[in-house]
Amino acid sequence: MQPNDDRPLQAVPDENELLKLVDGLIFEKTGKHLNTLQRLLFQGMYDGKTYETIARDTRYTTKYVREVGYKLLKTSESCLRSQKY
Description:
- The protein is mostly helical.
- The chain is built from four helices and no strands.
- The chain is globular, with a radius of gyration of 16 Å.
């Protein structure tokens, strides 16, 4: 099957669209929306920032940011694995 060269390119979702998607998936699974730090972590990771930079920008300790980031990624992974496509 030949690709249709006339179709418009699909835009990559921006960070706000992805944040809404992740928040919705996590809410469906846990009944809780992302908190402020989790949102800032997601935005920072989307922008390619390190945990150290995110910690400095948010004034949390790097250790705490890592812990919250790890849990956020594990929860996101679990939500995505349980989705039916």
